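Subject: Glutamate:protein symporter

B.,
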Amino acid sequence: MKKISLAWQIFIGLVLGITVGAIFFGNPEVETYLKPIGDIFLRLIKMIVVPIVISSIIVGVAGVGDTKTLGKIGGKTLLYFEIITTLAIVIGLLSANIFQPGAGVDRSALTKTDINSYVDTAETSAHHSFVETFVNIVPTNPIQALANGDMLAIIFFSVMFGLGIAAIGEKGKPVLNFFRGTADAMFHVTNQVMKLAPLGVFALIGITVSKFGLSSLIPLGKLVLVVYGTMIFFVIVVLGIVAKMCNFSIFKLIKYLKDELILGFSTSSSESVLPRLIEKMEKLGVPKSITSFVIPTGYSFNLDGSTLYQALAAIFIAQMYGIHMSIASQITLLLVLMVTSKGIAGVPGVSFVVLLATLGTVGLPVEGLAFIAGIDRILDMMRTCVNIVGNSLASIVIARWEGYKIDKNADQKAA
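Prediction pasted inline below.
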């Protein structure tokens, strides 16, 4: 009997979760039983992320062994991230202006959700300048950065440590072998943990549907359709053109990442697929020195789905309150989002927090977010998928930019 592939197992878990959630809609016992399963799965993933990022970056950087080469890769990576995220914001603004998802929305038909839990984080984030973000990349205590899961600080320390190993030559080889072994062992652990993905997906999606129900989409249906439609357009057209320029097909990439996309969609967590993305992009032919740097950094600087959504949601709120935003105001919004969307990466509910920190800056009512907070999880599912595709493609772009050849059919060989 042919074994069911992991992608199909995850998809079956997704369908069963939606079914159970719909049958037991409004029943709080569903969360009681399913939450521990979902939480254990997410904790297992988070347990893996930091060791894999550290060991992969150290091995990759020590392999490059040249500060100049690494600096060149870093500069190209950040330039590419800035261009793509700015395009995502522009497309979000254009889509909101063309389709007007907030026009004529009856606010009385919408249920307000308490957003106080996000307010403190947003107030902190609003004062978190771009300069501060770069200062905080340098950890005062690497162990504390590891404990807090502060990804940018972890990346910085790992890069410096990798360069140190490369600089001491032969004496550094035992240390390098240790981290190479750690990376291989952690990828094995990842593959074991992924066997539990169908259960985790079943539990997490079941809780979401039982809480909000499918009916919660109706009053804000236009917003959901516009967000999903714009993100699909962004992936197929914008990222599709970028992939074509790299002599690769965006559809091949999506097919190759189907397991990770279903998992990311169900869990609303980009972090849940980070270890697998690094592994899969290496199998595709992207060198370890690029995957280990580009993908973890992208989780802070290249959240295409999140930045597109933030632009669209801000205009949606303006339209809902009947506030006309001039071109100058929208340009200000674009500039503010270019900074805030990168300044607080890694915060739970990051898109929501960024919006809270941004709306006041451009004179929009923060209270408007209370109307869309209830469906934020459903929008977050699609945002996560776009972030996954965007970061995977980024590693191919930088590899091609550095002169590496990516085989068009490598996805079939690696699958």
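Residues 29-64 form the longest helix (36 residues).

T.
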